[in-house]
Design goal:
Elements lengths: L1 E2 L10 H11 L12 H39 L2 E6 L6 E7 L7 E2 L2 E2 H18 L4 E6 L3 E8 L2 H9 L10 H12 L4 E7 L2 E4 L4 E4 L7 E12 L2 E11 L3 E10 L8 E9 L4 E6 L9 E8 L12 E5 L4 E9 L4 H13 L4 E6 L14 E5 L11 E5 L10 E3 L3 E9 L15 E5 L2 E4 L3 E6 L2 E8 L4 E5 L13 H13 L8 E3 L4 E3 L4 E7 L2 E4 L4 E3 L5 E8 L5 E9 L2 H4 L4 E4 L12 E4 L1 H23 L1
Parallel strand pairs: 3-6, 3-8, 8-10, 9-36, 18-19, 18-20, 20-21, 21-28, 29-35
Antiparallel strand pairs: 1-2, 2-37, 4-5, 6-7, 11-12, 12-15, 13-14, 13-16, 16-17, 22-25, 23-24, 23-26, 26-27, 27-28, 30-33, 31-32, 31-34, 34-35
Helix pairs in contact: 2-9, 3-4, 6-7
Length: 616
């Protein structure tokens, strides 16, 4: 029992006051008086009651003492412990499965030490009849065992635990631990090599070694300067200061099979990132660039998975666009030049602009734009954009009405990425041709209730048809027109992946303009349905392949690396993610004011009753 206000016990001084009262209280004296018969009879009665009176007086005194004691305890605000923090329902062990836990020193990795220590603690806990739950904070947090009292099951679960190459899902692991603590009195232990300034109520078990250190390649970039690439390599050393030898090998340079190499030596102070520049290599295109590092003194670091780096994307895929018009529009030409400039770093866009219908091609291009004069047959491969078509090419299931004249304002149709940032109501025209039927097409824009802009994008056909004449419409003069062309290009010819370098576990969005899309890497080959979002669980080089309608297979390479934060073996974090809501076990106490008050009331009632009986 614990007293919140011990000064309340001063009320026990009331016992001294009670004693003083009884000491100064006058006592009865024996006196001789004349006796009579009635007096003698009354004395006989009093002798019979004398024993009862003494007992009642003792009870009254006892009640008065209890009243003072109970009042003193109520004033001192006592609390009674009903649950001890040492009475655990279970112990929860969280093991960090982040990539940095693969760092090896003193003959074992951090992860191996964490598993070993967790196994020993589980054995001790189960020996004290306290079950354990074990959570692995890998790429995705998961339970290894829950509330397990069998050491064999714990051993089996820990034996199957694997350390990831990604940043561990620490927050998810803490959420799993929190869910267990909500229904039980449990202590959480976290085995990790990362230091935290504020661990909250989590017991952090440090499994790092003072001998841990790491030399790493953090990033590699290639920037085109005057049409020639300059390479930038970010390197660092954590836990020591070392001289590093950096080697660069550029393969498949300048559309050939030649390889150019370069070396550099740099001093890396502990924890500082150094950028090394490789220039004047004469490289204007390349298949891949490989960077590797070696410590100058020949020592080997604790973490080998970030000692190499591959960079792809040095060869841009060529996209051929034909703008075929018998009466070319300068605004259209300008929009295509804008497109070419925007994607200069991604695509090598070649523009062809024939004006003679005899020069209009229906093969050999990726994007066809026909304005006014139409081909007799629709191209079988590539994106086709028909503007103000005079006729409908064979192979296109679409019919047009006659020319309609007047003053018209467009209205929007279905939601489609092509119309992003475009206000259809800002577009006006004095003539248009209604699209009477267009099976399989989406209508993006209407004029007087008639479709004037339709698109179709599927495995069989990638076609857009706009039946407005740009010479009798304000569309080409609006800033929205180049936006429409860029949107259309992105919609029909999407970038396969948004970058060429990703972290392990990072979401990768895959788009494709072909079919039979696969992700190839290591010993695996995985088919995907685009658009798709995937993530890689191990570092290395991967390839997205797709089959174009022409029968040509296109490959896009990318590299998956260890996250830069995982390379820093000595990093210090502010707090454990998701641990705010977890509280360590505490003694549970309850006040007994009500029970003391009931007892006090009962004793007061008894004392008053005995006092009343004494006067009868």
């Amino acid at each position: 029992m614990r007293l919140l206000l011990p000064l309340g016990l001063l009320a026990l001084l009331g016992l001294l006051v009670l004693l003083i009262i009884y000491l100064i209280k006058p006592s009865y004296q024996n006196k001789s008086i004349p006796s009579t018969y009635i007096w003698r009879e009354s004395l006989k009665y009093r002798k019979k009651q004398k024993t009862d009176s003494i007992f009642r007086n003792l009870l009254i005194i006892l009640c008065q003492i209890l009243i003072i004691v109970l009042a003193a305890f109520i004033l001192s605000m006592p609390l009674v412990q009903i649950y001890s923090a040492d009475d655990l329902d279970q112990n929860i062990l969280v093991i960090d499965g982040s990539a940095n836990m693969r760092a090896a020193s003193d003959g074992s990795t951090r992860f191996e030490r964490a598993v070993s220590q967790a196994r020993d603690f589980a054995e001790e806990s189960i020996g004290r009849n306290v079950p354990v739950s074990i959570i692995l904070a890998g790429e995705q947090a998961s339970y290894i065992v829950t509330e397990e009292s069998s050491l064999e099951m714990v051993e089996e679960g820990l034996s199957s635990a694997q350390c990831s190459f990604a940043t561990g899902d620490i927050e998810g692991a803490m959420r799993l631990a929190d869910a267990l603590t909500e229904k039980s009195n449990a202590q959480v232990y976290y085995y990790t090599g990362t230091e935290y300034r504020n661990a909250g109520d989590i017991n952090v078990i440090d499994v790092s070694s003072e001998n841990d250190w790491n030399a790493c390649v953090l990033d590699v970039r290639a920037e085109s300067v005057d049409n020639y690439y300059t390479f930038y390599v970010d390197v660092a050393v954590y836990g020591s200061s070392k001289y590093l030898d950096i080697s660069l090998a550029v393969n498949g340079m300048n559309d050939g099979e030649e390889t150019v190499t370069a070396q550099s030596r740099t001093n890396c102070a502990d924890g500082e990132t150094v950028t090394v520049k490789f220039s004047d290599l004469g490289v204007y295109s390349f298949e891949d660039a490989e960077v590797s590092i070696r410590v100058d003194d020949g020592t080997v670091d604790s973490f080998e998975n970030d000692d190499t780096f591959y960079l792809y994307g040095g060869t841009k895929e060529t996209i051929r666009i034909q703008y075929a018009s018998s009466l070319q529009n300068n605004f259209f030409t300008g929009a295509l030049l804008v497109l070419q400039s925007i994607y200069a770093d991604r695509w090598d866009i070649e523009l062809s602009m024939p004006t003679d219908s005899e020069d209009f091609a229906t093969s050999g291009y990726d994007f066809y734009i026909f304005e006014h004069s139409m081909p007799s047959v629709l191209p079988t491969y590539g994106v086709v954009f028909l503007v103000n078509p005079s006729t409908v090419p064979r192979g296109l299931d679409l019919s047009l009405g006659g020319n309609v004249s007047g003053d018209f304002t467009m209205t929007g149709g279905v939601v489609n990425p092509i119309m992003n940032y475009i206000d259809a109501t800002a577009i006006t025209a004095t003539t248009y041709r209604p699209i009477m039927s267009a099976e399989g097409f989406e209508t993006l824009m209407y004029c007087e209730g008639d479709g004037v802009f339709v698109v179709r994008n599927d495995a069989e056909m990638k076609v857009a048809v706009l039946t407005l004449n740009l010479n009798t419409s304000n569309l080409a003069m609006l800033y929205q027109f180049p936006t429409m062309i860029v949107n259309m290009f992105d919609y029909f010819i999407p970038q396969t992946i948004q970058d060429n370098v990703f972290d392990v576990g990072e979401a990768i969005t895959i788009q494709a303009r072909g079919t039979d899309v696969k992700v190839v890497g290591g010993q695996s080959e995985t088919a995907v349905q685009v658009p798709a979002t995937v993530s890689m669980s191990a570092p290395g080089s991967y390839t997205v392949t797709q089959m174009l309608a022409t029968g040509r297979r296109v490959e896009t390479d990318f590299y998956v690396k260890i996250a830069s934060s995982e390379s820093n073996l000595n990093r210090i974090e502010d707090a454990i993610p998701g641990a705010d809501s977890i509280e360590k076990p505490k003694d549970i106490e309850s006040d007994i004011y009500l029970w003391l008050a009931v007892a006090l009331f009962a004793v007061i009632f008894l004392e008053r009753f005995l006092q009343a009986r004494e006067k009868i």
